[in-house]
Amino acid sequence: MSDFDVVVIGGGAAGLSAALVLSRARRKVLVVDSGSPRNAPAAHMHGFLSRDGMPPGELVEAGRKEVAGYGGGLRDGVVTGVVPCGTTRFWVLLGDGTRVLARRLLIATGLRDELPEIPGLADRWARDVLHCPYCHGWEVRDRRLGVLWNGPETVRYTQIVRQWADDVVLFAPADTLTTPNRSQLVARAVGIVEGEVAEIRVEDDRLTAVRLTDAQSVARDALFVPPRFVPNNDLLVGVGADMDEQGFVVTGAHGATSVSGLWVAGNITNPRAQVITAAGEGSAAGIAINADLVDEDVQEAVRAFHL
Questions:
Q1: Residue 266 contacts residue 13 (beta carbons within 8 Å)
Q2: Which residues are 223's β-sheet partners?
Q3: For the purposes of burial, counting CB atoms within 10 Å of the CB of 97, is it exposed (0-12), middle (13-18) or buried (19 or more)?
Q4: pLDDT tens figures, 206-225
Q5: Which of 50, 98, 124, 260 is deepest in the core (most CB within 10 A)?
Q6: Angle 56-69/13-24 helices, nearest 10 degrees?
Q7: Separation of alpha carbons 43 and 67, rounded Å
Q8: What is the tens place of the pLDDT at every residue in 20-55?
Q9: Are strands 228-231 and 111-114 parallel, antiparallel or unpaired?
Q10: Rounded to an integer, what distance in angstroms lies between the CA atom of residue 16 and that of residue 108?
C-alpha cells in the first residue's frame, strides 16, 4: 500500500501532461495506464505544434520519460475501482489486487469509437477510413473522398471534408436529406448517393470503393465516418460523478467534477479534443489540482501551528 498526492488514471497526452506539471511541482504522483490508447491504429498524429507527423506511441514514450525524470511514478495496469475515502481522498484499486491512496485523483481514460457495423469498415480504421478531417484531411487531399451518414450533423461535417477535395460524395440513407440539405450540398458540388451501404471494398491493401445493397459501387480512395463517441466512464459512474445525456462527465473550471477531489481531462470530457488539446487540458487540470493541494497544505499547517 502506498500514498500519493495525486493518482492519474490514463497515460495518454492528457494524463501525462498533468503528471508532468504535478511532478515538477514536487508532488508525489503515480500514473496508471492500461496501454490501450484510442489512437493506437494511427501511424501518425497531426496538428500538434512541433510534433506534427510523430507516431503517437513516440509521444507517449517521450512523455513517460519526462514524467519519470521528475520523480513521477509510472505503473502499467488496469484500475478496477475507485472508492472515496473521506472528503477528497480515494482508494484506487488495481487489477492485481493492490490498492493505493490518493489525496486527489485525475481520470483521463478517454473514449472509444463505435463504428457502424459495415463489413470491411473497422479493418481500415485510421488508414483510409477516417473520422477527423483536421487530423487526416491533408493526407488524403485532392483524392476521391466519401462521407458516411451518421445523423443530421453529417451534412455540415461533409461540408468541412469538402475543404480538402473537390470530389466528395455523401452516402446517406434514402429519404433522410431535407431540401435545404440538398441545396447546400449541390451548391458546393458535393455528390449525393442514397441507399444502404453494404460493404467497403479493398484491393491491394487499399480502399477502392463503397458498395451499396442495390449493387451500386462508387469508387472512393478514402471514407470519412463520424463515429459514435463512447466515453470510458465506468470509474466516474462508480463514484457518482455528474454526466450529460451522452455519458460524458460534466466539469467545472479546469476539469473539476461534481465529486470533491476528482478531476478529468481529455476525451473523457471533451470528445472532440485532439492530442494537443488533451495535453493542454491535462496541464490545466494539473495546475488546478496542485493549487487545491496547496490550499489543503496551508489549512493543515495553520491547524498544526495553533496546537
A1: yes
A2: 129, 146
A3: exposed
A4: 999 999 999 999 999 999 99
A5: 124
A6: 20
A7: 24
A8: 999 999 999 999 999 988 888 888 999 999 999 999
A9: antiparallel
A10: 9
Q: How far is 266 from 263, CA to CA, in rounded Å?
A: 11
Q: Which residues contact 203 (CB under 8 A, 6 or more apart)?
A: none
C-alpha dihedral (50, 55, 58, 60), degrees to nearest 10: 90
Give me the amino acid identity at 2.
S
Cα separation, 14 vs 17, whole angstroms: 5
Predicted TM-score (pTM) above 0.90: yes
Residue whose cell numbers read 496538428? 47
Q: In whole angstroms, give the CA distance from residue 134 to residue 138.
A: 8
Torsion over CA of 211, 217, 223 and 226, rounded to 10 degrees? -50
Chain position carrying cell 431535407: 178
Identify whether the C-beta of residue 161 lies closer than 8 Å to the C-beta of residue 168: yes
SS3 assignment, position 257 = coil
The partner residues of 99 in beta bridges, in order of sequence, read 93
Separation of CA 149 from chain center: 21
Amino acid code (one letter) for 51 = R
Place of cell 465516418: 225
